[in-house]
Design a protein that fits this description.
about 170 residues, alpha+beta, seven-stranded mixed beta sheet, two-stranded antiparallel sheet, 3 helices, about 20% helix
Length: about 170
């Protein structure tokens, strides 16, 4: 009987330690939604071109751990006529461990929906990022849903090493 009370107390402590995270945090599974699609579209629209003369492949990932997005989600972007590739099929090449598209043998541009936090019924703060080879940027956007359309506030750069004036990054 004593072991039962210890078990109940242990389960209670485990369950109380399972907080859902910070208030307003959107679950990772909900990143592949209309909001997530609008975020990726906005990211592509505002994306600099770190290598203008090189064909591009895009890989959409989510969360801080760069989880792959489902094919069904990426197919929602097919009207953009861009090459999207799953993170699951990317290759790591020798000798420098570069990540490449297996078909083109070129480095993809990673598009990351890093974090979504609800700040109201129809508003969010969203951290996004992009990377190409060793170049990257992370930004924060305030987003509002207004009349069925997502409106993106001014982008605030959080971090990054991309310098649009540097020809060595091309």
């Amino acid at each position: 009987m004593k072991w039962l009370s210890h078990l109940i107390i242990s389960l209670f402590l485990i369950l109380t330690g399972c907080d859902s995270g910070e208030p307003g945090e959107v679950s990772l599974g909900d990143y592949e939604s209309d909001l997530g699609e609008a975020v990726v579209r906005q990211l592509i629209k505002t994306l600099p071109d770190p290598a203008p003369s090189i064909p591009k492949s895009y890989c959409v990932v989510k969360g801080k751990d760069l989880e792959n997005t489902r094919t069904e989600f990426v197919e929602r972007l097919s009207d953009l006529k861009l090459r999207f590739i799953s993170a699951n099929v990317l290759l790591v090449t020798d000798p420098d461990n570069a990540v490449v598209d297996p078909e083109t043998r070129l480095a993809p541009i990673f598009l990351q929906i890093a974090h979504i936090k609800s700040t109201g019924a129809d508003s969010w703060t969203i951290d996004v990022g992009w990377s190409y080879k060793k170049i990257f940027e992370k930004h924060r956007w305030d987003v509002k849903l207004n009349g069925g359309n997502y409106q993106f506030g001014e982008s605030k750069r959080i971090e990054g090493n991309y310098d649009s004036t540097s020809p060595s990054q091309k």
